[in-house]
């Protein structure tokens, strides 16, 4: 069963938008940018199976296959944060092809303490992985042909949440910081509403053409177009 809608944002950037009944995150895949034989990056692969019993990872794999992207060719998993619906499938992808993982140091500390309890709370086993390196604020030089990602530390929904900005294509991947007409919840352990507000203010000044939120996007796609994105920021900034 396929629950992901594939949206090609640029030649090598694909958004996989979750369409199932139960909870899971949207995933982004950037192809052909790393050195070596595993050249793809996946951002937030999501659940293995969710609370509705949907085969989330199977659906993602199927959707990616239709775009000729193989799970075994993923070299790096980037997690915007460590909640189960964003990184439960990390270990499975690592076992499939030997991908490495990165997230922020703050989030890694969180997941090894309080965060693990969220998995037990939801009756799941936390994925086992050791980050290759930690994401820091600023430019991350990842590989060939000068491909760069800008890492933005955006705590609030989770203490070590990050967003990713691709300056060449003006794509912003926001995890659970900002959605279409809503924002990430702050009532989970480690959540902080004031910090979330500051993080959203920080993102609002960027020049963005495509916004890929972790959940709740516009029907059938992502938030597209500078003006729409600006209006979306203005609307959610009124929540605070
Ligand atoms: Zn989350």
Order of helices and strands: EEEEHEHHEHEEEEEEEHEEH
CATH superfamily: Ribonuclease Z/Hydroxyacylglutathione hydrolase-like
Beta strand %? 25-35%
Average pLDDT score: 95
What is the CATH domain class? Alpha Beta
Q: Which of globular, elongated, flat, extended, rod-shaped describes the shape?
A: globular
Instruction: State the low-pLDDT regions, or none.
Output: none
What radius of gyration results from the CA coordinates? 16 Å
CATH architecture: 4-Layer Sandwich
**The CATH topology is what?**
Metallo-beta-lactamase, Chain A
Quickly count the domains: 1
Binned, the helix content reads 25-40%
- Report the biggest beta sheet as strand number plus sense, adding barrel if it closes: 7 strands, mixed
Give a list of the ligands. Answer: zinc ion
Total count of strands: 15
SS field, number of helical segments:
6
Structural class based on helices, strands and sheet pairing: alpha/beta
SSE layout and pairings?
Elements: E1 4-10, E2 13-18, E3 27-30, E4 40-43, H1 56-66, E5 74-78, H2 84-87, H3 90-97, E6 100-104, H4 105-121, E7 133-135, E8 138-141, E9 148-153, E10 162-166, E11 171-175, E12 178-179, E13 182-183, H5 193-204, E14 210-213, E15 223-224, H6 226-237
Parallel strand pairs: 4-5, 5-6, 6-7, 11-14
Antiparallel strand pairs: 1-2, 2-3, 3-4, 8-9, 9-10, 10-11, 12-13, 14-15
Helix pairs in contact: 5-6
Zinc ion (ZN) binds next to loops.
């Amino acid at each position: 069963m396929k629950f992901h809608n594939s949206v090609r944002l640029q030649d090598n950037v694909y958004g996989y938008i979750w369409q199932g009944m139960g909870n899971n995150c949207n995933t982004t895949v950037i192809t052909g940018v790393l050195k070596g034989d595993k050249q793809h990056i996946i951002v937030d692969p999501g659940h293995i199976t969710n609370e509705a019993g949907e085969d989330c990872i199977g659906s993602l794999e199927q959707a990616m296959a239709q775009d000729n992207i193989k799970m075994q060719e993923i070299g790096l998993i980037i997690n915007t944060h460590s909640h189960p619906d964003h990184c439960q499938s990390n270990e499975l992808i690592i076992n499939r092809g030997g991908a490495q993982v990165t997230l922020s140091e703050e989030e890694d500390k969180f997941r090894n303490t309080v965060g693990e309890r969220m998995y037990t709370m939801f009756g799941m086993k936390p994925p086992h992985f050791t980050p290759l390196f930690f994401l820091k604020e600023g430019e991350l030089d990842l590989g060939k042909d000068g491909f760069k990602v800008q890492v933005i530390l955006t705590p609030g929904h989770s203490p070590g949440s990050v967003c990713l900005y691709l300056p060449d294509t003006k794509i912003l991947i926001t995890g659970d910081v900002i959605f279409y007409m809503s924002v990430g919840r702050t009532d989970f352990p480690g959540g902080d509403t004031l910090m979330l507000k500051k993080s959203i203010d920080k993102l609002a000044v960027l020049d963005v053409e495509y916004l890929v939120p972790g959940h709740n996007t516009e029907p059938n796609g992502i938030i597209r177009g500078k003006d729409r994105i600006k209006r979306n920021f203005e609307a959610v900034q009124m929540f605070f």
